[in-house]
Every structure is written in C-alpha cells, then in structure tokens.
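Lecture notes, continued. The same structure-token format from the folding unit now serves as the input rather than the output. Read the line below as a description of shape only.
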C-alpha cells in the first residue's frame, strides 16, 4: 500500500509540475509587458498560481483514477460471486483484454476475433493457435507474405504437438480432433497460395489473386477455429444476468445478424 501511495504522489506531482512550467513562462513575459502596471502584475500572478494549483489537482485526480481502476473492476465482479470464482471465466476476460489492448493500428478491431477471446474457456494452447491464425490474416492484408508464412508454420506446429492438450478441454474430444485435422488439411492450400504470391511480381494481377485466395482460405480456417473453441465452453455454462434485467428477453448463446443500412436522400 505504501508503494501505491508513493506512486500516486509521484505521478500526481509529475503531471502537476509539467503543467506548472507553462504558466510560469507566460508569467515572466507578462511581467515585462506590464511593468508599468502593478495592478495587472498582481492579477497575472494570481492567475499563474491558480493555473498551477489546478494542474496539481488535475494530475493527482488522474493518478488516483488510474490507481483505483483495478479495485473498481474487482468490485464489479464481486456482484457475481459464482462467476468471479470461475477460473475459466476470469482467465478469458484477462486474455480478451490483453489481446484487444494496444495502440494505433495494433488495437484488435476484428469482431470475430474479439468474440472468440470473449468465450469462457481456459486453454493456453488454443489461444496460441488463435493468435497465429489471426496473424496470418493481418499479414496477408498488409502483404507481409514472409511473416504470414511464419505464422502458418507456428499454427501447424501447435496442431501437431499440442492437439492432446487442446482436445482435453473439449466437451467431445473426438469432435475437436476432427476439427483440428480439417484445419491442418486447409493449411496446405493456404501455404501454396502464399508461396505463389511471393513468386509473383509485386502489384501484379497474379499476386492479387494469390493473396485473395489466401485470405479466403484463412477465413475458412478461422471459422473452424471458432467451432473448436466453442467446444471448449464448459457444459451448462450460463452468463449471469443482473436482476434488474433478468426479466427481459435473453439470447442464449450467439447469433449472426444480417443488417441492411439504407441511406436516405
């Protein structure tokens, strides 16, 4: 607790001190401009002090908010003790937050990926497989062909060496084993189109077609990955609904909704 309090104080002080320098510079300039007006100098000095105090308070408030955020999250989970005690659920939340974090272009904006990370499962091997397969899509989109081939190699290695650990988490191990075999089979044509795209001239129609074919095959594989991970959801699992909303219609499971948006005018 002492460490957190010290961090809070230092963070608040740092932000406050940063904002304190700018008003002081303005104050020096104003003093020279209004040297003949003592009353104005007094007003400027008060404004400078006021800005510094506001900067300090703002900095300390921001630090306090960052420091207490985990406690607020924990408090929310305490409302659902049956869920908070479920290791699979807690791990899936942490994993989803971790893989969706980042900045700029590295933020996970793929809705299907985020839905997979939101599944209440606890299996490190399938999460590693998911990352490799999804990275293929990212690298194909940016024409980083060698990187996509490296990810394909990682995915194949995980399926070859970690199948037993993945199927152990499934409700039906035979179903998951068949899905993994099908995914592994689809990696062959994906590797073929990726290698073909490397050989074609950059910007050519042949390269474009090879990359498009790779993209479609990757999408086929990741849909099978979704089915695999859904097999790992504990039998009888139900998402807790707060009592304020439990009388409303509920979607048990997941659904795909097709929407048509029309622009008027």
């Amino acid at each position: 607790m002492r460490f957190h309090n010290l961090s809070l104080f230092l963070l608040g002080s740092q932000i406050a001190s940063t904002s304190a320098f700018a008003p002081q510079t303005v104050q020096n300039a104003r003093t020279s401009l209004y040297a003949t007006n003592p009353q104005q100098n007094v007003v400027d000095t008060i404004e400078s002090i006021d800005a510094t105090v506001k900067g300090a308070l703002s900095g300390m408030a921001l630090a306090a908010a960052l420091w207490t955020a985990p406690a607020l999250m924990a408090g929310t989970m305490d409302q659902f003790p049956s869920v908070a005690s479920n290791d699979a659920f807690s791990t899936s939340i942490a994993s989803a937050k971790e893989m969706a974090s980042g900045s700029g272009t590295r933020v996970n904006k793929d809705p299907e990926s985020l839905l997979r990370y939101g599944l209440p499962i606890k299996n490190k091997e399938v999460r590693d497989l998911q990352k490799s397969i999804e990275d293929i899509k990212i690298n194909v989109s940016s024409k980083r062909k060698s990187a996509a081939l490296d990810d394909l190699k990682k995915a194949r290695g995980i399926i070859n060496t970690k199948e037993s650990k993945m199927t152990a988490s499934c409700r039906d191990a035979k179903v998951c084993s068949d899905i993994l075999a099908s995914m592994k089979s689809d990696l062959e044509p994906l590797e073929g189109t990726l290698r073909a795209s490397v050989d074609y001239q950059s910007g050519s129609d042949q390269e474009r077609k090879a990359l498009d074919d790779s993209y479609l095959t990757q999408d086929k594989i990741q849909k099978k990955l979704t089915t695999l991970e859904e097999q790992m959801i504990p039998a009888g699992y139900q998402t807790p609904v707060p009592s304020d909303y439990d009388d409303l219609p509920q979607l048990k499971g997941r659904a795909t909704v097709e929407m048509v948006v029309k622009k008027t005018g």
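Point for the exam: Residues 1-36, 62-85 have pLDDT under 50 and may be disordered.
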